[in-house]
Write the structure tokens for this entry.
Amino acid sequence: MLRLERRPEASHLMSYASPAIAIVLMLIGGLLLFAFLGKNPIEGFKVFFINPISDLWGLSELLLKATPLMLVAVGLAIGFRANVWNIGAEGQLVVGGIAASAVALYFQDSEGAHVLILMIIAGCIGGMSWAAIPAFLKTRFNTNEILVSLMLVYVSQLLVSWLVHGPMMDPDGFNFPQSAMFADSALLPLLFDDGSRVNVAFVLAIGALLAGYIFMFRSFAGFQMQVAGYAKDAARYAGFSAKKMIWIGLLSGGGMAGLAGMSEVAGPMGQITDQVSSNYGFAAIIVAFVARLNPVGIFFASLLMALLYLGGEQAQQYLNLPSSISLVFQGMLLLFLLGSDVFINYRLRWNREVTA
Amino acid sequence: MESSILTSILFATIVAGTPLIIVALGQLVAEKSGVLNLGAEGMMSMGAIAGFAITFETGSVWLGVLGGMAAGALMSYLFAVVVLTLMGNQVATGLALSILGVGLSAFIGKSYESEILPTIEAIRIPLLADIPIIGEPLFAQQSLVYFSWALFGAIVWFLYRSRPGLVLRAVGESPSSAHSIGYPVIRIRYLATIFGGAMAGIGGAFLSVFYTPLWVEGMVAGRGWIAIALVVFATWRPFRVLVGAYLFGGVMVAQLFVQGSGLEINIPSQFLSSLPYLATIIVLVIISRDQNTVRLNAPVSLGQPYRPDA
């Protein structure tokens, strides 16, 4: 019989192979799903995974969608390394988007770069302040940050819904729940002038990945968080402050999520509506895990996740499937990854009969 | 007139609390065995769509509830394989299950979005239902409301009065001791987890078949997470789950009554709708304020993987 046997040492190879295994399993799962739905699996595969990136426009959309994912995932990864479970990035993204929009609407008639700079600052502060709530409650009252940050996602969605139905609603917008379109000075400049929608936020995201890399692997605080993630007691014995790590973990995730919210309203949206986020806050959690909490991995995992988004849109258009199929792929990917991670510490062995 | 408003508030509170009781009691049993499944939101969503679709296709409410239960159980089985056999991280796996369940239910449910099920009649208990004020809320409810009370009784008996319940709690407190005296820790955890999933599925089916009764994407609206918070709030005690669920049910219906009362008050409806989520945060703060409250009551091995090194 097959059984699991503990490896003497964790396998380095497997910790990198396991995301690849998970991706392959997800693809197989997808083929089965298409077949089950009565669609030709090969055709479905082509529509979902090949068509979205078969031209330059598609590739530019891939970068556009990957941008908020990179931002959020790198911020979250810093916290996850120390077992700080911020799973409310979705809400922090929304609040960052709200704060940036408030700045944009206030400076509606203003020219100059200060508008965008203030929007970036506002976005980060908005996301950080939303993340500060679970951080404060965790450090002060020992309240579970998973549940608090998640509850605040629902609150943030109601908050933005109220704002775009009330104070932020476009006065000339025929009562649609959305703000006025931002002035040009409040829109992120495009990177290319070939009609694609990729903007400066992509450069910011690459910068965030670099900064995240330096923090994680070249700074003392990053080292402390790494130690705390592996061995909580060792970190406490060494005198590392657990509260500081909770604050750093949540604020980095919140700040980056807020920046992602800013990049959405000042980028492809150009206004704020009650649909600020397309689930990026949750998808970024999967990105962070698939990437092994490593910024280099986050770059590639974000592209993969962005492809799942684009594939979902294509499947809706050409296969007549609901776009929520993207979520199905996302969930499968994470489940398969967590399952195949067992082979990092264990290996399969045939149980041999022991003869006395 | 006064008493009829009170009656309808009580009635609605009990209805709103019912899915929370069913889901939270299921989670309680799983957590007592040491398994923390954060996938309740996903399991409820799957239970809701399975219950709705099966009731709609077959016309049988009971097949629908069974289907919802099976969907929840199947989801939790998936979870159990990853965290119990493959020793995956329980927090991350639960999250994955939530994302998968919410996505898959939206995917399956797309074609049912404009359908409505017939309202299910309440079961009146003769005489008792005629008691003023409390008669209707307590004795003229839909069948699953009575089920939630029976479930409460059964779980109290199981956990504190039966031998298997004692073993289950032992597994949650100290899996290695339970293993060394010969109990199959992993199998017990599988069963407890699947029970939790089955209850989450029934809770979801209650929403889509009894409560609304229709299917809308995202209709579970965080109730799965609230149920998980409820177990913490109840410090893992069934009776407090019951009380807490009605407290939350009360918060949920209070906003509906305020909105429907026609009172001219200047509170945006979104603020009222956010009350259950804010209330969840507040009760979590109250219960966690004293570090020992949670530490002394939580099952010791909660959330930790265990593998008998035979």
